[in-house]
Amino acid sequence: xxxxxxxxxxxxxxxxxxxxxxxxxxxxxxxxxxxxxxxxxxxxxxxxxxxxxxxxxxxxxxxxxxxxxxxxxxxxxxxxxxxxxxxxxxxxxxxxxxxxxxxxxxxxxxxxxxxxxxxxxxxxxxxxxxxxxxxxxxxxxxxxxxxxxxxxxxxxxxxxxxxxxxxxxxxxxxxxxxxxxxxxxxxxxxxxxxxxxxxxxxxxxxxxxxxxxxxxxxxxxxxxxxxxxxxxxxxxxxxxxxxxxxxxxxxxxxxxxxxxxxxxxxxxxxxxxxxxxxxxxxxxxxxxxxxxxxxxxxxxxxxxxxxxxxxxxxxxxxxxxxxxxxxxxxxxxxxxxxxxxxxxxxxxxxxxxxxxxxxxxxxxxxxxxxxxxxxxxxxxxxxxxxxxxxxxxxxxxxxxxxxxxxxxxxxxxxxxxxxxxxxxxxxxxxxxxxxxxxxxxxxxxxxxxxxxxxxxxxxxxxxxxxxxxxxxxxxxxxxxxxxxxxxxxxxxxxxxxxxxxxxxxxxxxxxxxxxxxxxxxxxxxxxxxxxxxxxxxxxxxxxxxxxxxxxxxxxxxxxxxxxxxxxxxxxxxxxxxxxxxxxxxxxxxxxxxxxxxxxxxxxxxxxxxxxxxxxxxxxxxxxxxxxxxxxxxxxxxxxxx
Length: 641
Hints:
The chain is mainly alpha-helical. The protein has 29 helices and no strands. α10 crosses α17.
């Protein structure tokens, strides 16, 4: 019995050393919520002892809901969704779009809100709390968000330029006066990507890449050319607006969201009424709503539907956990998880009605079939629709309303992405001695510097390249691994219990099995198909640009496997990293020590737990180790549970 007690004492010491946290690191803790009531109490104490204020909260639950709607409803709803409908079967595209929303979009939306609200921490550190090997999920999401945030604000800069040019005091919009119409105003007067077309020159008709493009094209990828200074000024103004939205954290972002999220709906309804009243609106609506069910047999249609769900609802980017981390612990996030996606997808459908009613009228007036028009990406927002607006009565007023709507849609999504990045910086403890406004200014200035590449004469080609490769594959991988992490590592039943505790809502068993099996399997198939489609597609970029695009895709996706194997190959010094979760602090060595500790107690020949726990530590050991034995045993019991 004596040797058994000594063996028990040594195993307890080993486990205690793995669990022990230096007091200096404990004092440096910054308000992270831990699992359980004891973790919440220690978190409150750490926040009180810290010089930093406690974690900010949304002023109300409605403010959080409005912020989520503003983030989800963006420019993609207005130009990406209608183009996808047109290119993928018209009304038939709504079938995979709706199924993907129900099976993948809404479950992951609920998952990210629930995990962010439970742990009260942003997406960059959230998954590391669940398990150290999942730290790559947060890094991948933040990397993809940062890449997209850099070029997304360039679209805001274009909207600002058109907004300023819409102040036509003579009642005639500048692109209506251009001899080449809206296309020449867009490519020559705005982007400066080609010289003005004239009857005797052999200048290219468009800046877009074509099948007969010869490389290197100038301006192009390799030779972007000089900066377009009017766009540089608009880009700087755009980043100033973003800084004003995020300089005070969720307090300022929440107040701005009330306007930027709600105002576009007023403009959208006004444009919808005007569009439906046009003589040829029925022609466009027929194209928009007539299904072509043979398209459903093409895998690319399902990949496009899933990609649009990830882009429009905002899942997989790390923004939803960051927003939810500023909620009160008892906020009903289950209501938001179905309300926000439904509003978002309904907005996309309404935007399609607006776009195709105008396109139908243009087709009837000009005699050009709709299938021969350029209705995707920037061409839809800055060529087709401005050309239609120019023919309306009181055209400058409609132009101002339209581009104000684009500004609100773009700014809402942009400052949400920047807020996600700043939340990750705050959670990582970077720049704790600097106020939030300074860190926000540094982030905006850095992204403005990188974004200058997109306002050169070849910037449109760079934007199309980055947009095509940066995040599509990463989002599918992140979504699938998140569901596996909650379903099998964190525990689907545990997540259901957390949801019942916080939101007072009981999750159905079918949803829990959806997290475990259905969503990961579907996203695995979609990831493979997206990879094959991207690799075999007939792109019009030069080979070196395609290689660069794949490097961007790997830059955001590789952190997931690399950081997954890091704890196995290079175990970190747990005691010196200030890890907060018992599961994190123990690591592999701690788990082994806990197993030995439990095994030794079971072999202690009937020694009472009281006697074993009060046995003196071996001579020469620090006295605080023996005094914390009860805490060690409690932590071991919690680990077993």
